[in-house]
Specification:
alpha+beta; Helix Hairpins; Heat Shock Protein 90; 3 domains; three-stranded antiparallel sheet; 10 helices; rod-shaped
Length: 439
């Protein structure tokens, strides 16, 4: 278990590091897409700026005659990062040259009207649509420090030449939604993988907890079975030893008494082994029941009488069953069910116990005034090998199979069993059956 704990802690630590690394990677990806988006907006602003100047030029000429603007472009090659000669960022240079030339025209042509910022904003939105970027709000104002525009908006400053004082500032609605849409695929797959990992870790730890409980139950079973087996073996061994050491052929009564003790203990051991074998689920699947009409009251009275004789404490069993009640059941297993329930009532009680057994055509109930079962343990009492270990109950003999047997046989008979209990007040078992009738 220590090795498992070490491996688990190591794996959880690695998973935590991987989740943190993935979170960092997603953050870097978000920043990368954000910067690319802002760069795209800057390029669109520059194109929209040129188009706005063309609009004003057309307006100044009353849109009745053609006009032309000559743009001189100098193409220069550069050495790239790997040493190759190439024309790097040539289209950016074209846009830059066009912007400079058109602004030069704007400065020299006195007939041009003032810049129309509303028209510029509309042109910018149209340009951005070509890149799949939709801005809910765009505000363009002349560049002024602390102009009072909503600080919740994103903004970029536009300059004709990089490094010069900006001409105006473009404010626009935040683009987190657009950026996250670009990341939707990787965010969805990362989230799904994380959710699956969390589920698998929970599932693994859940089953490890169950396995530990089963291991504890197995240890308890071994301890209890050893305790249960030691007593009859010791008694039989003592009786056999006495016969060997002090054998007297003439004392027939004494010899028969020792043999009777040995036979009783061996019979008890045989019964215990049979009960354990009966707990196998495969045994239950193939078990054949001899279902017949069984008189309920005589069987219950016979078992109650035997339990009163073998009990080592005062017990009072009150039986309220109609004389003519017949139950469709296997008489052997029905008797074992009643025997197990009465035996538990006697074991888990104080110095004395009162047991009330009632039955009719629909059900049979067994209620005692014992120490009861707390609500935390109540849902598990029918589990295989389960025993309540709190308080002084752990010292009570048994190996956690009695109620499991009762539950399994009841279901094989088509019956249902439920239990109610209050700690310190007692326990009530109710078995409901079908197909019975009073005769």
């Amino acid at each position: 278990m220590k090795r498992f704990r070490t491996i688990t802690i190591f794996c959880l630590s690695v998973i935590t590091i991987l989740v943190a690394a993935n979170t960092w990677y997603l953050h870097r990806l978000y920043e990368s897409i954000r910067m690319q988006t802002l760069q795209t907006i800057k390029e669109c602003v520059r194109r929209a700026d040129v188009l706005e100047i063309i609009d004003r030029k057309a307006l100044a000429s009353n849109q009745q005659e053609d006009f032309s603007i000559k743009v001189a472009l100098v193409v220069k090659g550069e050495i790239d990062s790997v040493g190759n000669f190439d024309f790097i960022h040539e289209m950016d240079k074209v846009n830059q040259t066009m912007s400079e030339q058109f602004h030069s025209v704007e400065q020299t042509d006195v007939t041009l009207p003032n810049r129309n910022y509303s028209r510029l904003a509309l042109l910018l939105q149209n340009e951005l649509k070509n890149y799949g970027i939709k801005l809910n709000r765009v505000v363009i104002v002349p560049f002024v420090e602390n102009n009072g525009i909503d600080k919740g908006m994103w903004h970029i400053d536009f300059s004709v030449i990089e490094g010069q004082e900006p001409l105006y500032t473009v404010y626009f609605s935040p683009l987190q939604k657009h950026i996250l849409q670009q990341m939707a695929g990787i965010v969805a797959t990362s989230s799904a993988i994380l959710a699956l990992m969390i589920f698998l870790i929970w599932y693994l730890l859940h089953w490890v907890g169950k396995l530990r409980s089963i291991e504890q139950m197995k240890d308890d079973f071994t301890h209890n079975m050893t305790h249960e087996l030691k007593t009859p073996v010791a008694v039989a061994f003592s009786a056999a030893d006495s016969m060997l050491r002090y054998y007297d052929q003439s004392d027939d009564a004494r010899n028969k008494q020792f043999l009777k003790i040995i036979m009783q203990r061996l019979s008890y051991l045989s019964g215990m082994i049979e009960n354990i074998l009966s707990m196998s689920m495969e045994r239950f699947k193939t078990m054949k029941l001899n279902i017949e009409s069984v008189a309920g009251k005589p069987i219950v009275e016979e078992i109650a009488g035997m339990m009163e004789l073998k009990a080592n404490k005062p017990i009072d069993i009150d039986i309220d069953i109609p004389d003519n009640l017949s139950i469709q059941a296997d008489s052997l297993h029905f008797g074992n069910i009643i025997s197990n329930l009465i035996d538990n009532a006697i074991k888990y009680s104080g110095d004395s116990v009162n047991i009330a057994i009632k039955a009719n055509a629909d059900s049979i109930t067994l209620e005692d005034n014992g120490i009861g079962i707390d609500k935390e343990n109540l849902p598990f009492i029918f589990d295989k090998f389960y025993r309540v270990t709190s308080g002084d109950r752990y010292e009570v003999g048994g190996y956690g199979l009695g109620l499991f047997y009762v539950k399994q046989v009841s279901e094989l008979l088509g019956w249902s069993i439920n239990v109610t209990s209050k700690q310190g007040q007692g326990t009530k078992f109710t078995i409901r059956f079908n197909g019975n009738e009073e005769r």
